Every structure is written in C-alpha cells, then in structure tokens.
Amino acid sequence: MNIKMTAPCIFGLEKPVAEELKQMGAKNVTSENGRVFFEGDENMLARANIRSRYSERIYIVVGSFEAHSFEELFQGTKGLEWEKWISEYDEFPVKGYSVNSDLFSVSDCQSIIKKAVVERLKSIYGVEWFEETGARHQIEFSIIKNLVYMLIDTTGAGLHKRGYRPQANDAPLKETLAAAMAYFSRLRPYHTLYDPMCGSGTVLIEGAMLVNNIFPGTKRNFSAQRFEQIDPSVWDEERQLAESLRITDTDFKAYGSDIDENALEIAKSNAERAGVAEYISFERADVRSFKPKTERGTVICNPPYGERMLTSSQAAELIRAMGKAFPQKHGFSYSIISPQEDFEELFGRRADKRRKLYNGMIKCQLYMYYK
Ligand SMILES: C[S@@+](CC[C@H](N)C(=O)[O-])C[C@H]1O[C@@H](n2cnc3c(N)ncnc32)[C@H](O)[C@@H]1O
C-alpha cells in the first residue's frame, strides 16, 4: 500500500527531516515551511515514527483540496476515502488550524469536518451512529491560504517524547531541536562533544544517540500501532531493524558540565535511561573557566536566556565570558543557540554561519563557528 505522509517540524528543521526520511527510504520527499511530505508503505510509516530525530510527528495525508466556503469544506471532506483508515468502531476526534484563509473559525471547521466524515462513513458502513470505542484516529486539518490538508495522526505523544526525560531542569531544550543542533554541527562518531551548560543533558544525549545510530523511538509506543490496517509484525520488524543499526565501536566521548549540581544529577539519570551514559562524563563547572580535555572538540550549547533564567544583563555578561573562555583554535567548533540579537558582538567573534531557529516561541539563531 502506498501511503502519503507528512512530518511537521520546528521551522528551520525541514532539511534534516527531509534528509533523514530519504535515508530511511522515503519516496517523493518534498519540503515546505514547517513540514515535509513523503510517501512509502506501512513499514515506512512505522520506520519514520521509530527513527525520526528531527520531526514532531507523522501524519497520514488523507487528501487535500481548496475550500473557500463551509460547503466546499464539507463536500471536499466527504469526498475523501476515510474508510481506508477509519473502521466502524474507531474513534475519530477532529482538531486543526487555519491561517490566512477565508475559513477562519476553527471550531466551525472542526464541526463541519466531523459531520462530513460521519456522513461519509455512515454511507460506507450503513449505520446511523458511531460508538467510537475503538482505536483513536486523531483527525487534524490544516488550512493555509484556503488549501485544506486532511491528516490522521499516527504518532500520539509527540516524537520529542523519547522516554528518557521524565524530569528536566528549568529551561530544557526540546529533544528534536537538540538533535538538530548536533546535525547542523556535523557531529561525527570520532568527535568529542562538549556542552558546558548542559542542564538536563539533552544535547549530549541526542548527540550520543545520533553518532551511535541509536534511534529515538525504538522503545516507545505510537497510536498507529492500534490501526488495524497495519499488521503488528510491521512494528516488530521495524523496531528490530532499527536496533540492529546501532554502531557500537565508536570513539565518541562527550563531556557535560553545569554550575547547578541538581541539573547534573538529572542529566546523569536521563543519560542512563537513554542508554548512553557510557559515553558521557559529567562534572560541576562554571562555563567561565571552560577547559576542554581534548585537542579537538565540538561544543554545542544553549546558554540561559535573559527572559527565563537570568536578568538580561546577566545573560549578556555570560555570553561575553563565554567568548573569552572558549578557545579560538584549530580543531574546535562552536554552535550556540541564543535569542540575543547582539550575540556576536558580546561573544566577540562574527559567526561563520547563522541559522534561524525557534526554541519554543522564542526566535533564536544558531551561531556557528568552525573556521
Ligand atoms: C537554558 S539551560 C540549558 C538547558 C539544557 N540544554 C537542557 O536541555 O536541559 C542553561 C543552563 O546553564 C546553566 N548555567 C547558568 N550559568 C552557568 C555558568 N556560569 N556555568 C555553567 N552553567 C551555567 C544553568 O544551570 C542551566 O542548566
């Protein structure tokens, strides 16, 4: 069965998402702002859920059409083959969003879509009432510039929920973003990774998982595991395949430090849960006196922001101190995510490359130094 799918992501992560999907064998991979479309079979659906590091979830694309009126929305929705995925007893709640479109009332769209799916399924299953006691098929619609996409969620809890971080410190980085920072830094199995403000350890853990080919979803569940159209053996096969790809003979090493003892304790237990504790050493240290332990190193970090953890003058002072402490020598690269507009001035060096990224709602840049 060929399935059209889409993987939404944080703005700025379309490239790593498209690349990882292609590596997994996805077909017809195309990107637009904040999401990547692709095609594949049931195995690809399971594989994308199990292996994706950078996307937020995996949707089935049931169809798309243009709609300027509620009537067009109703007819367009009713015309789609919902019965391919939704069986007679399945649950099918509806949610979604609309931007820059004639149909802007999300709650009205929601009830019209629900009604249209019900009408469609009534005629298919010959019943008047749906109990919705079966597997949850969350329907999600997106309407952007009057173009409607009708999706079914296959993931459940977002893909950033890897399962290793039940606890985080005050301002944790989203796992998908931390993984992408490691990707953009071109972290390799023969590198040494440093995060001198490691908090709950997300960058170190995602970095270790990336270079050792440990896939984030091998141990968690996904809502499509309950879809009757996908044989349970598909999930078992894909989990086994993902586990078999793990690399075990790397020289990878990571060093995490933080000023906060409590954050370090959390980071250690998160690393253990993620199965990567063997690669990471932790110690309490002030970034102001950062001393790398190796001749070469990849430093990736996310300093505290003025808004959340420090006053803005303290945050600025810390960036100045980092600029002085981080050695400017051959073999060292730095990737630092910050919302601070005058970051480069404070750090004292012009970045070799900048990337716009969002950390939650906060507009940031990844300042990269590698020359
Ligand atoms: C935004 S958080 C990092 C979050 C981390 N990436 C995570 O995923 O949990 C910033 C961290 O910097 C640490 N920090 C603040 N001042 C520091 C300093 N002078 N030296 C080292 N760490 C510091 C804080 O304790 C905090 O854990």
Describe the structure concisely for a colleague.
This protein has 371 residues and is an alpha/beta fold. 31% of the residues lie in helices and 23% in strands.
By CATH, the architecture of the largest domain is named 3-Layer(aba) Sandwich
Mean pLDDT: 95
Helical residues, percent: 25-40%
**What's the end-to-end separation, in Å?**
48 Å
Order of helices and strands: EHEEHEHEHEEHEHHEHEEHEHEE
Are any ligands bound, and if so which? Answer: S-adenosylmethionine
**How many structural domains in the coordinates?**
2
Q: What percentage of amino acids are in beta strands?
A: 15-25%
- What about the largest sheet? 7 strands, mixed
At the first level of CATH, what is the class of the largest domain?
A: Alpha Beta
Counted beta strands: 14
Order of strands in the sheet with most strands: 2-3-1-4-7-6-5
CATH topological fold name of the largest domain: Rossmann fold
List low-pLDDT spans: none
Please identify which CATH superfamily of the largest domain we are dealing with: Vaccinia Virus protein VP39
State the helix count. 10
Structural class: alpha/beta
Overall spatial form: elongated
Rg, rounded, reads: 23 Å
